[in-house]
Amino acid sequence: MSSRRSRSRRSSNSSRITEEQIVELVSKLQDLLPEARSRSSERVSASRVLQDTCNYIRDLQQEVDDLSERLADMLASTEMTSAQAAIIRSLLM
Amino acid sequence: MASVPSSSSSSPSQPKTRKKPGQNSSPAPPPQTKWRTGTQERLYSRRLVDALRATRDRTQVQESVGSRAVKQAADSALALTARGQSRWSRAILFGRNSCRRKLLVKAGGKIRRHRRKQHGVPPVAAEPGVLKEQKVKERLRKLGRLVPGCRKLPAATLLEEAADYVAALELQVRTMRALADALSAATVSAPEEEETAAVDPMAIAEQGS
């Protein structure tokens, strides 16, 4: 397999990862980040995007943990009027 | 990536699918649109409520539902909603239930059991320039640790998985927050009525949706 590789030749078929593919993936990731809303068109360095992504994922996971705690507390209490249950039902639909 | 839940190249007039028009030939919608459709939100809400009810039913009478159990239920529900089409979702599902095959069927997507080693991974010599920087490599490694099941992936795959995972996490946070807010608003506003209409919130929620 390795004999097919040539350092000077770069093709864009699916088996090889090109610079453009990476750049595109990084910019796709950049668009997902909350920072993208403030600097929409400006291209940031790849390492910065990766750093922001790591921080964002960590923040989101932390939020999930906090929300899990909230939900766990609330699941413990099952007392509720039917009117309140109707509110929940409508919100979930 | 094989079949995608709400996409079809031959029916352009589907309500609430993707927000980008006219992408017939793209293999999969980008993470932003895929995870932000109303369909996905409802789907995940249902799965989340189901999972939470199941968790609560499994808990012993004296114990209370722990936050870790809730988080695991939420993560599993999220992975199910991904239909096992991404590596991180498969990692979550396989990690929880290593013996339960029917969980894969329940997810409904095309899940193939493939070996952990990838064949034909291109050698390092063919890397594009930006990936050779030390900083980028370190951060890629950090990212690989954060996304479940993605520690040893090549860069391009890891970036794709990360994008999908971020969008999915956003959905998870949105849904859980909506559910928590709804539950807390309902419990705080009215006084407790012990004897009369004590209703199980999860049961009603599950029946209603």
UniProtKB/TrEMBL annotation, chain A:
Gene Ontology BP terms: regulation of DNA-templated transcription; regulation of growth
Domain of life from the UniProt record: Eukaryota
Any GO molecular function: protein dimerization activity
Coiled-coil regions listed in the entry: 50-77
Keyword Electron transport on entry: no
Residues of the signal peptide: none
Similarity section: Belongs to the bHLH protein family.
InterPro entries, per database record: bHLH_dom (IPR011598), HLH_DNA-bd_sf (IPR036638), PRE (IPR044293)
Protein name as annotated: Transcription factor
PROSITE patterns for this protein: BHLH (PS50888)
Annotated BHLH domain residues: 6-60
Keywords tagged on the record: Coiled coil, Growth regulation, Transcription, Transcription regulation
Automatic annotation (TrEMBL), chain B:
Region (Disordered): 1-43, 187-209
BHLH domain span: 120-169
GO cellular component: nucleus
Key words of the record: Nucleus, Transcription, Transcription regulation
Gene3D superfamilies cross-referenced by the UniProt entry: Helix-loop-helix DNA-binding domain (4.10.280.10)
Top-level taxon: Eukaryota
Molecular function, one GO term: protein dimerization activity
InterPro entries, A to Z: bHLH_AtIBH1-like (IPR044549), bHLH_dom (IPR011598), HLH_DNA-bd_sf (IPR036638), IBH1-like (IPR044660), IBH1_N (IPR059002)
Compartment list: Nucleus
Pfam families on file: IBH1_N (PF26576)
BP GO annotations: regulation of DNA-templated transcription
Transmembrane segments: none
Biased composition (Low complexity): 1-13
Family listed: Belongs to the bHLH protein family.
Protein name: Sequence-specific DNA binding transcription factor
Species: Rhynchospora pubera
